[in-house]
């Protein structure tokens, strides 16, 4: 039907016009943002996929960095950053978690991490801690075992040299695998001959 085709064409033109208008509006906002001296980043309200892609494009053309944040489609929004204020991985992570970015808190966290790393390094430079338990178990149980029980017991221990060795007399079958297999095959052949 020709009227349907005409309606479709009209809709497409309307969409195209809306996209062009949206792009113009975004270009104005982005240029205002660039001129605003005290604003390192700007967060735009949530928008659909097409609008986000237009905004990303406008930002790229203007030499800015842009990212989308938000979990579900209707709450996703774009943030635009001036190149000299490009976000750190930490900052991006905060936005991804849906948190506000607080540079002072991040700086504090970074300082604590550095301090911890420095302490770790100093610990390593002091040399390894002496091996073994911090206290001797014999001291703990001295009232039970006396002071020389462990030493006396240690002298009487001796390895059993025959451990793991089975005397030949205890082995029932001393044939090699080949001999055993040959015997089985011979019995099998004998049985087949008898059956025939």
TrEMBL record:
InterPro entries: R3H_dom (IPR001374), R3H_dom_sf (IPR036867), R3H_sperm-antigen (IPR034068), SPAG7 (IPR017330). It comes from the Eukaryota. Residues 117-140 are annotated as: Disordered. Residues 20-83 form the R3H domain. One of its GO terms (molecular function) is nucleic acid binding. PANTHER family: SPERM ASSOCIATED ANTIGEN 7, SPERM-ASSOCIATED ANTIGEN 7. This is SPAG7 protein. It comes from Elachura formosa. The gene is Spag7.
């Amino acid at each position: 039907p020709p009227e349907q085709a005409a309606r479709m064409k009209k809709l497409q033109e309307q969409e195209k016009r809306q996209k062009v208008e949206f792009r113009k509006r975004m270009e104005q906002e982005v240029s205002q943002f660039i001129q605003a001296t005290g604003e390192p980043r700007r967060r735009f309200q949530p928008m659909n996929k097409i609008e986000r892609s237009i905004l990303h494009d406008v930002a790229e053309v203007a030499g800015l960095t842009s990212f989308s944040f938000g979990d579900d489609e209707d709450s996703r929004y774009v943030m635009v950053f001036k190149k000299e204020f490009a976000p750190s991985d930490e900052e991006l992570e905060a936005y991804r978690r849906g948190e506000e970015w607080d540079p002072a808190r991040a700086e504090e966290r970074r300082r604590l991490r550095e301090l911890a790393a420095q302490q770790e390094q100093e610990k390593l430079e002091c040399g390894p801690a002496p091996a073994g338990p911090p206290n001797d178990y014999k001291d703990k149980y001295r009232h039970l075992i006396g002071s020389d029980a462990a030493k006396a017991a240690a002298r009487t221990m001796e390895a059993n040299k025959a451990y793991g060795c089975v005397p030949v007399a205890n082995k029932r079958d001393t044939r090699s695998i080949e001999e055993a297999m040959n015997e089985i095959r011979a019995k099998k052949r004998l049985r087949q001959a008898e059956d025939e």
